Amino acid sequence: MSRAWALGDGRVTDTVLDVRSLSVTFHKAGSARATGPQAPSRVVTAVDDVSISVGRGEVLGIVGESGSGKSTLCRAIAGLEPVTSGKIFYEGRELGHSRSKMERRAIQMVFQDPYTSLNPSLRIGHVLLEALRAAGVRDPISAPALMSSVGLDESILAVRPAKLSGGQRQRVAIARALAVNPHVLLADEVTSALDVSIQATIVELLARLAAERHLCLVFVTHNLQVVRALCQRVAVMHAGRLVEAGTVTDIFSSPAHPYTRSLMDALPRLHRRRGRVPEGRAAEDDEPGFALATSESSQCFFRLRCPLAHARCASERPSFSPGEGSGEHVVACHAAGT
């Protein structure tokens, strides 16, 4: 199997980030009427046995509707959420939840909302300085150079976040992540809170930075148009699981999973393909994003919305099989190819 999705034993030396069979679960309280040690609770699986890997200078897009586990996956990779099972490797070294300063610097995350990700009481120069101190960077990039790298004037360093536009705040957040010289940058819905006119600018900025700095960039979004413009490869998540993955060409020209097809059908100007989910059953249907960690884990979670579902989908979790196109294309669906 291809090294791109870490589904087999094949590895290559250019892999920077390697996530193997990662799962993240949360314990949620049961009924509010029940209290004490006997109060019922349930285990919710936010990320369910996900494997991905990304090479140096590569941009991987992770797509899926809200609640599909995209952000939780990134937070676990960044060490911000405890991992229930599975392993995360950075340049061949396994990472734990307790990481050294060097390991924390190597993997940085830019969050969705630029309005809440910056300390409103600090001037931008102090925001950058605080990040450098926390990371223990001894030879930092100069603050004016950081501002220049993200297309901002150094005068920004003297103002507070409230004086900046949403696009400027997000550029500052990107600069803060770059300040510690990371090798992996996790961008979690970084354009969704911005005006459409600003989104393209941020996407172009990330593309340039990834190329210039040879960054391993993981770009999380629900916007497939952005993925097509920015990424080389795509991973599609649904209800915490990876359901399809491949190159951008694979996913856009030969989507194999009915869920991926439903996402494609939500895009304007894309030709309809035979076998896609019919109109009216696209990705906005009211399905819970998180899955209960019960016997249902042996089922396909998309089956209730899938026009191709059959009895096997209710009793057996689909395994990965090759899709059309490149050797990178894999799909987890019993009805793949129909």
How would you characterize the overall build of this protein?
- The chain is α/β, with parallel strands linked by helices.
- The chain contains nine helices and 13 strands.
- The strands form two sheets. Strands 6-7-8-3-9-10-13-12 form an eight-stranded mixed β-sheet, with helices on both faces. Strands 5-4-1-2-11 form a five-stranded antiparallel β-sheet.
- Strand 12 and strand 13 form a beta hairpin.
- The chain starts with 14 loop residues before the first strand and ends in a 6-residue tail after the last strand.
Summary of the model, kept short:
It contains nine helices and 13 strands. It is an alpha/beta fold.
Q: For the report, how would you describe the main beta sheet?
A: 8 strands, mixed
Strand order of the largest sheet: 6-7-8-3-9-10-13-12
- How far the N terminus sits from the C terminus, by CA atoms, comes to 22 Å
Determine the fraction of residues in helical runs and give it as a percent range. Answer: 25-40%
Work out the radius of gyration. 21 Å
Which quaternary structure do these chains form? Answer: single chain
Low-confidence stretches: 1-13, 269-289
Number of helices: 9
Query: What's the total count of β strands?
Result: 13
- The gross shape turns out to be globular
Helix/strand order: EEEHEEHEHHHEHEHEEHHEEE
Give the class from helix and strand content and strand pairing. Answer: alpha/beta
Q: Mean of residue pLDDT?
A: 83
**DSSP strand (E) fraction?**
15-25%
